[in-house]
């Protein structure tokens, strides 16, 4: 370690673990995006809040930018360090700190992996209901930084709804304890919610108080094959009116082909253009009968052409794999990803317009659609044609995304539903937020991060 600045950091925090090996810089300097070559100064792995504070104060003194890092499962470049930043990884701060049985609050460090939170809640007979396919690797701090949604938003909402309090180190090194687990707190601005979704640009979440709830009732999983997107929206309306839905996820035939090629089992003999995986409460025979009646009604009306229902946990997991395996199956192809949202009622009109844009912009290209119908969130993954240079492919995709962003503005939607803005979506922010809103965001950042060291260049330029 020859960099004088790093020597001063170690003098400031002698027990701090700092990595400078080339392989470590490569590993920690990127997230699931692969468009930027990582080039961090070093990797710092603090074990305490005090070490995080020391790093931030050092960064201010040395004018070194910081990139907070969790599980690095992000898809918008929010955790990329490509310009000599210090990556501040929270993976060593991975302990469950406390459980309050009266308030049903679990306090954890930011580096705790989501699956560990699920397990800890289960040990107390409760549940943390926010869930994603990347549960085994994504961290709570990263979930909070992007206000991640996942597969059960229709029932439980986004991460924001389950954060009872936060401990945050600001861009000046000050520790803020926000809300402290209160249910009612009308004492001024709720800075907790300001931090949620801020992508590490205002401060570093070091601890979180998570609300827990009753475990979900016994459920069953149903896989549906549908002839059209219009039918999909009608099926959603019918199912939602008759059943207690835990999740309602759709994907296309192209998505299914990728998952099958990745090792999943084919669900039906015939191919169909659209599929739905839905999970619903099935605690008794009445609820199970209602679900079958809803399925049969949709089948009679031609809204559904085939279906399967789980009879065991193993079968449920097999059906869920068809949806949750999509991102992993696409990863080797390095697809260009769009993560957009509109109001549920606007989705049919938006999709019709968007499909026309996509077909014109990507003729003959493999475009994979899937998403969360219950909360208006669509994922559009474009697989690069074989042999096309990455820079040419990205340039083509950005032209189409610019058109897509305009369509979102016309339909009152958002260019980022749950992945964050990061670097990837930054050029399109003004189609989602007004200039006045962005100006206010910049002003807030200047207050909490006056020297601009906190994940600079992400979300917007200073």
From TrEMBL:
Keywords: FAD, Flavoprotein, Oxidoreductase
Domain FAD-binding PCMH-type: 36-215
GO terms, molecular function: FAD binding; oxidoreductase activity
SUPFAM superfamilies in the cross-refs: FAD-binding/transporter-associated domain-like (SSF56176), FAD-linked oxidases, C-terminal domain (SSF55103)
Keyword Transmembrane: no
InterPro entries documented for this protein: FAD-bd_oxidored_4_C, FAD-bd_PCMH, FAD-bd_PCMH-like_sf, FAD-bd_PCMH_sub2, FAD-linked_Oxase-like_C, FAD-oxidored/transferase_4, Oxid_FAD_bind_N, Vanillyl_alc_oxidase_C-sub2
Annotated Pfam families: FAD-oxidase_C, FAD_binding_4
Family: Belongs to the FAD-binding oxidoreductase/transferase type 4 family.
Record protein name field: Oxidoreductase
Organism encoding this protein: Cognatilysobacter bugurensis
